[in-house]
Every structure is written in structure tokens, then in C-alpha cells.
Specification:
By secondary structure, the protein is α/β, with parallel strands linked by helices. The chain has seven domains: 95 residues, GIY-YIG endonuclease (3-Layer(aba) Sandwich); 77 residues, no CATH class; 77 residues, Arc Repressor Mutant, subunit A (Orthogonal Bundle), CATH 1.10.10; 197 residues, Rossmann fold (3-Layer(aba) Sandwich); 179 residues, Rossmann fold (3-Layer(aba) Sandwich); 60 residues, no CATH class; 82 residues, 2-Layer Sandwich (Alpha-Beta Plaits). Helix content is 32%, strand content 23%. The radius of gyration is 32 Å and the shape is globular.
Length: 831
């Protein structure tokens, strides 16, 4: 057996892989994937065992201190995935592995040391007897000095011992004392918020006849009646029950139950309960529709997926390309059923928490008691318990946003990514990764099937399918529950309203005449409408009409947005800076300073003013910051407790709202002309997805799209639900300009509070990159920049960027010193 282990350690100052020796007492227990505590500089940190090695890479190898968990925290497939992602994204392996660990396994681990009673006086030198040790003895060995300290202070943490031995390496001595059985060492429990939660339960321990015979002898008159009631209550219960129920039923107390336990009539013990965020969801349930009859297109797609399961071979990922409302979720559910039938587990990813409630409800109806939920809005305890249940194999399905991909299911057989085009699958802060790419790699490593689904797959995803990297399955029609007024595919008709013509005709309001008529007609019929706006707040910016001064964020240099509901404040949507609305222009002193533009708050107030009897809900970032806010808003609207839903990007997701017959896209042009090669694709996807919220029942529906650029190809394609036409046109543009999928990109960004420093470092690296490209004869790889980023200043830092474009630009950076740079491989935006 190897005596050394390589550990991934990720602490604020250092992230890397380090060698440690394995002490003899732990040698039989430590395995790959285990979480251990180790000394690192002058602190105790956690590390994950990656592999065992026969020879350490350094001379003075420190020992592993303790095993934190008897079960591995990572599977071998997860370690392989982390290694592959770290390699392909130039990310520290330790930082990437940190993505896999839940809250509660923080890097603030420590160990508690105390003297064992049996160890006192039995050590070889005999100087550490608790009664005879004196702190005045200055010439004692380190071991004895530690024992002196512990004899006086009792139990101490490693960090507390550090304080007393700041210049002495004491950990080897402590480990010697632990090995000799003189000291005990145990890891500190996780924070209270994530510690396992226990409740006291009671159950009958004898036969009912024996319990009945003991009734007269249960105590004095003052206690007899309530103890009898408690015992009879437990006689009626088949399983153990929470003692609080016993108290409520009998009026007894803990002392009474302890007395019954001492008489061996009942068992009194503690049992762990799981903090499950789905408890409240499970009590709502949802009609179980059972197996739905598949359409011909669904049946064709399902047969190919089913064939991949039956072949028992690692297949290519499937791209389920289906229009909105075509029944993709039913295919996901059948794939999950097949996976569970084969004794494996499934991960179902959705792009945002806003989508989770509907997806969870559908899966709960088919898989009651087998579903776990993971996302960032859960409490630390809920996330930790769900992670532990997944690791123990107690869950068959895990549903959640991007981070749910890292749930430690022991035998993954299926990974589904719904709305796989969505930008939320990309982590835009270090460590950078794309969950869609990671999921395909993970499925291959785990021997699982990967299923991507979208009505608007990205250009790259579609191109990969056309090239045979994935298998494309098409659902071109909605499930047949629509009326004759709609197109043959069942998609709602879209009317483009040229807002330039509206202005010429004297209509200067937010809503066109067509949209107002549509809203009035929808409300009269008792149906629902969605108003989509790709902005939040009341106004886009505040400026002076005399001198043109725009009020900007001092930390980000971006225009502040006016919010009425936040107390008439101006807010920065990047860093959170806020200030009061100025009464006068800070530049020229004019009182003619006004809010200009359009935001979701303003749309909400205007709708309420135009239709005072309508019940209006707003769904945007401000209204969904609290836990469960997404589900509350969605459930209210789905239950028709509101008539109009005003919202931003969250409405462009896979929501299924049958009563919605009108979707009004208030301003379709936002983001259309951004200096980014992916801008048109994002706008097309958003508009197509939002339009797909209408007409998802036999009531039919319509979409009214307001724009100042009706001739733009993204607007035209979205109005016709023409995914294929947009793909062909956009693909040709990408090919002409040399952007993905015809090349790959790497974005390097430097941030600094000093503008000159940011520019200097950017130009310095650009010069080096030019030399590296020339030295390697990388003629197909081009250098774009250095230039300031589109948002040139964020959170007080100036941003400069360089973009590499070519067949394999990331390879030129391997082994290079890029300290201080943020490196994104295959970024989804260049803004």
C-alpha cells in the first residue's frame, strides 16, 4: 500500500495539489475521494484525496491529521471530471474541486484535542501526570508542554494551540501523542446551520400484554395517569413517534418517558431527520397524470433514446430540438423512469431557480419520495442534507440549477439539461465553466446518457448536431390541443408593431394601440397576459435635459437606474450602489433633471393605471430576492390570482401557463446592437422563448411584438418562429467573421483599481502573446485587443481585455504565467 496521498487543497491564499503522508492508524481507512484535515503552514485545512503515490514530491512530508467523514465526498468520476475541467479551462484543480463540495464542508476545519484519562501517567517519560505537571517547568519536551497546556485548559482547538506555540512546530508532537493513545483528536463539527438535525423519538419495547400488565406500577398518583396515557398511546403506534406527539397526546414530560425507558417498557432514542426543501411541495401534490400518450414525433424521439439505453453502450449526447409546448418534459420523465428501472440515478438541470417549481412538481407526481432539490436559494442545512442523501443513494433524481450537476450520486445513468441554450448554465465568475459542456463530459466519464433539450439551441449546439457530435431529435409541432387559428405547428401568430409608425401617428405611450386592444380583449375574456420587458427598474437612466449630464455609478461608470419601489432611489445593477434621486443636476445645478427610459416597474404602474381593475404581478430581480419568491409569484399567477404578469428575463424560460393567451413584448430591441458576436442570437432566443408562453392550451393565443427595428433578421425570424432560417443566416455571418463554431475563443481580462496599471498590464501581455503565437507559428490564431471592456469599470476596477481566436487558442496558454488575469475558455459573451 502507498504511504503517500496527493490532496487538493483550496484555501484563500493557496489552491493546489500537495503530497502528504498517511499515518499508520488511518492507512486502512483513507480512500480516494475522502475529505481529510491536514496541517498547512500554521493552520488546519481540509483536503480531498485525489490519488495515492509511492513517492512524495518533497522531502519533509507532513502527515494527514484526521479523516473528516467515513465516506468519500467525491466519486472517481467526479474527480476525473474536475481534472478535465481544470485542464480545459486553465483553472486550478483545487478550485474546481471546491465546486463539488457543499456548504458545511468549509475550509475553516479544525481539530479538538484533549487528554485521555487512560493515557495520563502511562507514557514513557512519565512527566505528564495531571496532578504533578507544573507550568513552571520550561525545559520539558514539546510533547510534555502540550500536555501541560491541555491539563490546565482542557479541550483545545488546533488554532488555540497555535496561539501558545506560535514559533514551534507542535503538530508532529501532537500526532505522536495521539498515536500513543495519550491524546484524543476529533474534527470540529460543521457550523450549526449544517450540522445533522436530530429529534427524540419513542416506541414500545415490549409486547402490548406486558405493557398492559405494568400499568398499575408506573408511579405515584401524581404521575400514574399521564404515564399510562403515554404508554397506551405508544401501544397504538406501529412505529416510533416524535416525543412531542407523545407529550401532546398524554400530557407527560421527558422525565416520565425516561422513567418508562428505565423500566424497559419503551425505547427512547434520537434519530436524524433530513431538512428537505420539498416537504412543503410534497404536501401540495399535483395530479399524477400517469403515462401520457406520446405524439408520433415524441414516440420517434423516445424510441431512439430508449435504444441507447438498451444498447448498454456510451452513446453520443442527444439534442432534443422541440418547439415550445412540444412535450420535451415527458421525454425527460420517461428517460428518468428507464434510468431508475436500470438501478441508476438521474440529474435534471434547469437554467434558473424560477423554472424549478414546475419541473419539481412534474417529477414529484411521477417519482414521489425519490426527488431531491439543489439550488442556491436553499438554506445551508437543506443543501447539505440533500447532498448527503444523494451520496447515500437515498435519492433517485436530483433536480436543480447549474450546481446540481455536482450532486454525488453514486451511479449516474442520465443527465438532462432543459433549455440547454440558456446563458445561466455558464458560470461567469471564477472558476469559469459551462454546465452543458461539463455535463456531456461527465456523462461520458460515468457511462451515462446525456439529453439536451431546447426550442432554440445555440448555434454551436445545432452545428455540433449537424456535424454528428450529438444526435438531433426533432419535435416540430406542439402537442395537439390548439385551435384552428394558429399555424400548422401550433405556434401562436406574432404581430410586429413598428413603433416608429406609432410615433408618426401620434401614439407616444409605452403600449401600441394593438397591444392595448389585445390586453382589453384578453381581460374581457377572463384570460391572462404576459408583458415582457428586458429591463428592470422604472427608468433606464437619469439625465439633465439642460447640459446632458448622466448620473452614473462612481464604482462602475454605468448609468444608474431609477427605482420607485426602492424609495425613489437610483441603483447600480452591477455592484448594488444606490443613492437618492438628485433634485438638481450635480453638473450644472439645473432642476431640469429627469428619469428617462422604460423599466419593469414603470410598465407595471402604467398597466395598473390603464386597467385599474386588473390584478397585476411583477416578476423580476427585485421581487424575487427572498427565498421561495419565484414559486410564490408563479403559483399565484398559475392559480389565476392575477391577470397580467409583467416581467423580465425570467419569463423567457420554459413556463407552462395554459391561461396565457396574449404575450406582449414591450420593447424587443434591447441588446440587439451590442458589440458582441452573440448579441443577435441572444435576442432571437429570448423573443422566441417568450413568444412560446402564449397559446399553450385550446384557447389559442397571440404575440404582439413592439420594435423600432422590424427589419432586423433576428426580429423577423422570431416573429415567424423560424429557428431554421435564423440558424442558416447566423451561421453564414459567423463563418464570414470567423466566430464560433468556426473558431474557438479565449477571453483574457485584467482588472485593477488603477486605470494606468490595467492598461499597462494588458499591453504587456498582448506583446507576449504576439511573441508566443509567432514562436509557435500559430498563423490561424489571431489576437484581438487589448481594448477596454464594454463595461470599462465595475466595482471600482478598470477592465481591459484580450481575445484569442483560432482552432485551439487555449493550448497556447498552457504553462504560462497568467497571474492576475481572468481566463475564460469559450466565453458566451465578449462584453
Amino acid at each position: 500500500m502507498s504511504h503517500y496521498a496527493q490532496l487538493a487543497i483550496n484555501v484563500p491564499s493557496v489552491a493546489g495539489v500537495f503530497d502528504y503522508s498517511i499515518p499508520v492508524p488511518l492507512a486502512a481507512n483513507v480512500r480516494v475521494g475522502h475529505l481529510v484535515t491536514v496541517p498547512f503552514n500554521k493552520q488546519i485545512v481540509q483536503g480531498v484525496v485525489l490519488r495515492f503515490v509511492d513517492q512524495a514530491s518533497v522531502k519533509d512530508v507532513k502527515e494527514i491529521i484526521d479523516l473528516l467523514d467515513p465516506e468519500p465526498v467525491l466519486t472517481q468520476a467526479q474527480i476525473s471530471l474536475a481534472e478535465s475541467l481544470a485542464e480545459s479551462t486553465l483553472t486550478s484543480l483545487a478550485a474546481m474541486i471546491g465546486m463539488f463540495l457543499p456548504a458545511g464542508l468549509s475550509q475553516q476545519a479544525d481539530t479538538l484535542y484533549e487528554i485521555r484519562e487512560s493515557g495520563i501517567g502511562n507514557q514513557q517519560n512519565g512527566t505528564a501526570d495531571k496532578k504533578t505537571i507544573s507550568l513552571e517547568t520550561q525545559k520539558l519536551k514539546v510533547e510534555d508542554r502540550i500536555l501541560v497546556l491541555l491539563a490546565k485548559r482542557g479541550t483545545l482547538r488546533g488554532r488555540q494551540i497555535d496561539h501558545h506555540f506560535s514559533r514551534i512546530e507542535w503538530r508532529r508532537s501532537v500526532q505522536y501523542l495521539v498515536k500513543k493513545g495519550i491524546l484524543s483528536a476529533r474534527s470540529v463539527l460543521p457550523p450549526a446551520s449544517v450540522r445533522p438535525k436530530f429529534v427524540r423519538v419513542a416506541e414500545l419495547a415490549v409486547a402490548p400484554d406486558a405493557a398492559e400488565s405494568a400499568m398499575p406500577t408506573l408511579g405515584m398518583k401524581s404521575t400514574l395517569e399521564r404515564r399510562q396515557k403515554a404508554l397506551r398511546f405508544l401501544m397504538r403506534e406501529k412505529d416510533s413517534v416524535n416525543v412531542s406527539w407523545v407529550y401532546a397526546e398524554s400530557g407527560c414530560n421527558l422525565a416520565d418517558l425516561q422513567e418508562l425507558a428505565e423500566r424497559e417498557l419503551i425505547l427512547l432514542r434520537e434519530t436524524e431527520i433530513w431538512r428537505d426543501p420539498l416537504d412543503k411541495v410534497g404536501r401540495k401534490i399535483i395530479d399524477d397524470t400517469g403515462d401520457l400518450e406520446l405524439t408520433d414525433e415524441q414516440q420517434s424521439a423516445w424510441k431512439k433514446i430508449q435504444g441507447a439505453f438498451q444498447s448498454n453502450k456510451i452513446s453520443k449526447p442527444f439534442l432534443l430540438h422541440g418547439v415550445t409546448g412540444s412535450g420535451k418534459t415527458e421525454i425527460y420523465i420517461r428517460a428518468a423512469e428507464e434510468t431508475i428501472r436500470r438501478g441508476r440515478q438521474a440529474i435534471i438541470l434547469v437554467p434558473e431557480i424560477a423554472l424549478t417549481p414546475q419541473t419539481v412538481h412534474r417529477f414529484l407526481s411521477r417519482f414521489p419520495g425519490q426527488v431531491g432539490l439543489i439550488h442556491s436559494k436553499l438554506s445551508a442545512g437543506e443543501r447539505y442534507d440533500t447532498w448527503r442523501r444523494a451520496r447515500a443513494g437515498l435519492l433517485k433524481i436530483v433536480i436543480g440549477a447549474r450546481s446540481a450537476l455536482f450532486a454525488p450520486l453514486p451511479n449516474i445513468g442520465l443527465i438532462v439539461l432543459d433549455e440547454c441554450h440558456d446563458s445561466s448554465y455558464y458560470q461567469s465568475e471564477p472558476p469559469f465553466y459551462h454546465a452543458v459542456t461539463a455535463a456531456q463530459l461527465y456523462a461520458k466519464l460515468a457511462g451515462a446518457l446525456c439529453l439536451l433539450g431546447s426550442a432554440t439551441p445555440s448555434i454551436v449546439q445545432r452545428y455540433q448536431a449537424e456535424g454528428g457530435e450529438t444526435v438531433r431529435l426533432e419535435l416540430t409541432k406542439r402537442i395537439p390541443n390548439v385551435n384552428l387559428m394558429e399555424s400548422t405547428s401550433g405556434m401562436p401568430p406574432v404581430s410586429i408593431i413598428d413603433m416608429r409608425e406609432e410615433l408618426k401617428s401620434g401614439s407616444r405611450g409605452t403600449f401600441s394601440r394593438s397591444l392595448l386592444e389585445g390586453l382589453e380583449s384578453t381581460l374581457t375574456r377572463g384570460e391572462q397576459a404576459i408583458l415582457f420587458l428586458n429591463r428592470r427598474g422604472t427608468a433606464t437612466y437619469v439625465f439633465c435635459r439642460d447640459c446632458g449630464f448622466v448620473v452614473k455609478c462612481p464604482r462602475c461608470d454605468n448609468p444608474l437606474t431609477y427605482h420607485v419601489t426602492s424609495g425613489e432611489k437610483l441603483l447600480c445593477h452591477h455592484c448594488g450602489y444606490d443613492r437618492l434621486m438628485p433634485k438638481k443636476c450635480p453638473e450644472c445645478g439645473s432642476a431640469n433633471i429627469r428619469a428617462y427610459g422604460l423599466g419593469s416597474e414603470k410598465v407595471e404602474s402604467e398597466v395598473q393605471a390603464l386597467f385599474p381593475k386588473a390584478r397585476v404581478l411583477r416578476w423580476d430581480w427585485e421581487t424575487t430576492r427572498e427565498k421561495d419568491a419565484h414559486e410564490i409569484i408563479l403559483s399565484h399567477f398559475a392559480a389565476h390570482r392575477a391577470d397580467i404578469l409583467v416581467g423580465t428575463q425570467m419569463l423567457a424560460k420554459g413556463l407552462d401557463l395554459p391561461m396565457v393567451t396574449l404575450v406582449g413584448i414591450v420593447f424587443a430591441d434591447v441588446g440587439l446592437n451590442m458589440p458582441d458576436p452573440f448579441a443577435a442570437e441572444r435576442v432571437f432566443q429570448t423573443l422566441t422563448q417568450v413568444a412560446g408562453r402564449a397559446g399553450r392550451s385550446a384557447r389559442g393565443g397571440q404575440v404582439i411584438l413592439q420594435t423600432f427595428a422590424p427589419e432586423h433578421y433576428a426580429i423577423q425570424a422570431a416573429s415567424q418562429h423560424d429557428v431554421n432560417g435564423f440558424y442558416q443566416y447566423e451561421l453564414e455571418q459567423r463563418k464570414r467573421l470567423g466566430y464560433p463554431p468556426f473558431a474557438r475563443l479565449v477571453k483574457l481580462e485584467y482588472r485593477h483599481y488603477d486605470l494606468i496599471k490595467a492598461e499597462t498590464e494588458a499591453r504587456k501581455l498582448a506583446g507576449k502573446l504576439g511573441e508566443w503565437l509567432q514562436a509557435d507559428d500559430r498563423r490561424q490564431t489571431t489576437l484581438i485587443g487589448p481594448v477596454p471592456c464594454f463595461h470599462a469599470k465595475l466595482n471600482g476596477q478598470y477592465r481591459w481585455q484580450i481575445v484569442l481566436r483560432g482552432p485551439d487558442p487555449i493550448s497556447i496558454l498552457h504553462g504560462r504565467d497568467l497571474s492576475g488575469w481572468r481566463v475564460e475558455a469559450d466565453p458566451i459573451s465578449l462584453l
